[in-house]
Amino acid sequence: MADAPEIDAELREAVNNLSASIRETRELYRGVASMMFFRFRLVPTANRMHQLVGRGSMTTASTALARFWQDVRRAARPTIDHPDLPPELQRRAGELVATLWSLAHTAAAGQGTFPDRSAPASSTATGTLGVGPAPEELARELLSIRATLAPRRGRGSG
Asked: Distance between CA atoms of 37 and 34, rounded to whole angstroms?
């Protein structure tokens, strides 16, 4: 992995290139935030972005950074869009999928361990992965979603 001075020089060069192609300061800040986060794997801060861009105010940098994080959260949030599902059920199903994805991602990254299948069920009640709800809580949520859907399925046939 490259050391900090090399990354800093590469980052400054990339910001200069971006600055040459984007004239609007707010858009430049959003582009810098995106580049820092996705390309350089750095967490952007308003202060660091302001140092790199060299124009605009700290308020402009802070506002652009806040919008960037809103966009990232919106893009990362799964939605369950099905015309027959009530809005509350769509929201809860989306949260369930997000939780399952987070658990899978954490386990895949080696940051957690899967529950020991030979252990009694009570040992998993605290959530062995250490992230999000326990598997039993997820199972209860899934049963709740199925119970909500069951009456709706019966209405359509007949």
From this structure: 5
Tracing tokens 């800040």 back to the chain, one arrives at 29
Q: Which residues contact 78 (CB under 8 A, 6 or more apart)?
A: 94, 97, 98, 101
- pLDDT (tens digit, 9 = 90+) per residue, 56-90? 999 999 999 999 999 888 887 766 666 677 888 87
Closest by Cα among 44, 53, 49 to 24 = 53
124 DSSP assignment: G
pLDDT digits (tens, 9 = 90+) for 103-128: 877 777 665 454 544 444 444 444 44
CB neighbour burial string for 28-51, b if at least 16 within 10 angstroms, e if fewer: bbbbbbebbeeeeeeebebebbbe
Amino acid identity, position 78: P
Give the CA count within 13 Å in the CB-facing half-sphere of 14.
18
